[in-house]
């Protein structure tokens, strides 16, 4: 079976590299499945799960915090502000981040940046979901 190289990169450095049979990612206009040889494409990603499918049928799920996917026929790059492979997610930290974000969203204070809290909540919920469904 043919494969395509996938690189997941964040400002902190590379998170995961592999040769995969397929990548499933959630762009802002919907979910896409990318096979080797796909036409070039750049698309913004949702805060979401990206699934890497290996030639042996196994898979790895990565929590991605938005960013972009860049597709070339022989290489797929996921460039994200933050990304964690499911088994590297610190679940206690994600639950604490969720609790903090919810507390900020409940508060009536003018000092709270609600948009920022909403996005932080989305990141935390995404990490919790990816962890609970895959670890
Ligand atoms: P927190 O409030 O817990 O820092 P956050 O959503 O603000 O969460 P980010 O700014 O998205 O965190 O990420 C900062 C760095 O910390 C990134 O390298 C990210 O991969 C890592 N990180 C954040 N939360 C977790 C987690 N629950 N498990 C593992 N790594 C995490």
TrEMBL record:
Residues 91-134 form a coiled coil. Residues 87-131 form the ATP synthase epsilon subunit C-terminal domain. Keywords: ATP synthesis, Cell membrane, CF(1), Coiled coil, Hydrogen ion transport, Ion transport, Membrane, Transport. The keyword Ion transport applies. Pfam families: ATP-synt_DE, ATP-synt_DE_N. It is found in: Cell membrane. GO terms for cellular component: plasma membrane; proton-transporting ATP synthase complex. Its main location: membrane. One of its GO terms (molecular function) is ATP binding. The keyword Nucleotide-binding does not apply. F-type ATPases have 2 components, CF(1) - the catalytic core - and CF(0) - the membrane proton channel. CF(1) has five subunits: alpha(3), beta(3), gamma(1), delta(1), epsilon(1). CF(0) has three main subunits: a, b and c. Belongs to the ATPase epsilon chain family. Produces ATP from ADP in the presence of a proton gradient across the membrane. This is ATP synthase epsilon chain.
């Amino acid at each position: 079976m043919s494969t395509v190289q996938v690189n997941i990169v964040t400002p902190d450095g590379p998170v995961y590299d592999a040769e995969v049979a397929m990548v499933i990612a959630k762009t802002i206009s919907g979910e896409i499945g990318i096979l080797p040889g796909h036409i070039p494409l750049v698309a913004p990603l949702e805060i979401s799960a990206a699934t890497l499918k290996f030639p042996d049928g196994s898979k790895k799920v990565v929590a991605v915090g938005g960013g972009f996917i860049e597709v070339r026929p022989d290489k797929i790059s996921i460039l994200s502000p933050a990304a964690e492979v499911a088994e590297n997610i610190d679940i206690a930290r994600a639950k604490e981040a969720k609790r903090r974000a919810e507390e900020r969203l409940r508060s009536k204070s003018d000092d709270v940046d609600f948009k920022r809290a909403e996005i932080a909540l989305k990141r935390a919920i995404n990490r919790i979901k990816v962890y609970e469904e895959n670890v």
